[in-house]
Amino acid sequence: MPQKPREVRPGQSARHFFGAEIRARRQAFGMSLEVLAHQLGYSRQQLSRIELGDRAVQPDLPARLDQVLRTGGTFQRLWKLVESEAHPDYARRFFKMEERATRIETYSSHAIHGLLQTEGYARAMMRAWAPEETDEAIQERLALRLERQKILTRPNAPVFWLILDEAVLRRPVGDASVMREQWARLVAAVGPRLTLQVLPFSAGAHGAMGGSMTVLTLPDGPDVAYMEGSHRGHLEETPATVARRRVTYDHLRALALPPAESVTLVRSLLRESYPSCLHTPT
Question: Which residue range or ranges hold the HTH cro/C1-type domain (predicted)?
Answer without folding.
Answer: 22-55
